[in-house]
Amino acid sequence: xxxxxxxxxxxxxxxxxxxxxxxxxxxxxxxxxxxxxxxxxxxxxxxxxxxxxxxxxxxxxxxxxxxxxxxxxxxxxxxxxxxxxxxxxxxxxxxxxxxxxxxxxxxxxxxxxxxxxxxxxxxxxxxxxxxxxxxxxxxxxxxxxxxxxxxxxxxxxxxxxxxxxxxxxxxxxxxxxxxxxxxxxxxxxxxxxxxxxxxxxxxxxxxxxxxxxxxxxxxxxxxxxxxxxxxxxxxxxxxxxxxxxxxxxxxxxxxxxxxxxxxxxxxxxxxxxxxxxxxxxxxxxxxxxxxxxxxxxxxxxxxxxxxxxxxxxxxxxxxxxxxxxxxxxxxxxxxxxxxxxxxxxxxxxxxxxxxxxxxxxxxxxxxxxxxxxxxxxxxxxxxxxxxxxxxxxxxxxxxxxxxxxx
Length: 406
Known about the structure:
Blueprint: H1 10-40, H2 45-48, H3 50-73, H4 75-91, H5 93-99, H6 102-128, H7 136-162, H8 171-190, H9 199-203, H10 206-209, H11 211-219, H12 222-251, H13 257-282, H14 288-308, H15 312-325, H16 328-339, H17 345-352, H18 357-372, H19 380-405
Helix pairs in contact: 1-6, 1-7, 1-12, 3-4, 3-6, 3-17, 3-18, 4-6, 4-8, 5-6, 5-8, 6-17, 7-13, 7-16, 12-13, 12-16, 12-18, 12-19, 13-15, 14-15, 14-16, 14-19
């Protein structure tokens, strides 16, 4: 294996990695908002799933425009644009709370989703290109570890605040976050990020090839096509479990909501971050496809254990899901981006960043099933998502072995 990060790109890698923390924090707050809005606005589990649905609808609708924007303006201006939208959405929580309007909150979350997808569309492929291709998956897993740190801190900080008293104001954490993101936008507007033009972009940039031809070429590539579908199913599993973890933990009196938010942070998401760091190291020594197969199998087992509802064994199954799903997103993303050679990486990234809409689908389905049956039974939804990732991983491992023999 080659160097994880090229020496000349170390500072850009550190800067861009800070963005992974920001959107990890923003996305993890949603998992606290589900329970908070159920109580503050007196809505059902299924209705609160609109929080994720609206945010990730922003991802879906803005992803392709984000790719086009970054292609034309470059990574730095794309990042600044994403940060400004992120800040605007966060600050809209202030009038939203004064109106006590669920619709205004959803609009704010939609705008945040639009901002976050621009950041992710820029940062994910940028991280893969800051070094040698064979270390792309490992490098992206390292950067995504800081996404995990944001996920750890958000539920315990925001959850601890919101669940401390019934009168806690949701506009306070979002207002603080909005100001912090505006400061980050100012910093990124002043720094220089080198534009990295991969060999694929140099050969057939979207500006020369045409957007339609670029999209057609990408979707005719089986590695890219199956990678997008696999990420969609991964997001169904990962986001739905995060969104309803507190509901699952409190459903049978296992723990109260304040304790659940702490366990989500330091237990589940802490394990997730640690597993991602370990996974980055493992994949510097073992083929990423093989690691993905093992993780796919163990997450399916973990989710099915929860469905069986057999006490502590099922609860352990939840943490199995967190541990072994950790490497899935960056690994599938890196395999798919590398496999999209000959086409514009920024446009390819934009399609990959449409996939969090799967989280909206998964959370709506899981919430509805929980309302009709039980939280344990509802884990059949993430089990299906993990099963498709396993099928994808087996396919990739088979293709990799065929290439070696040829």
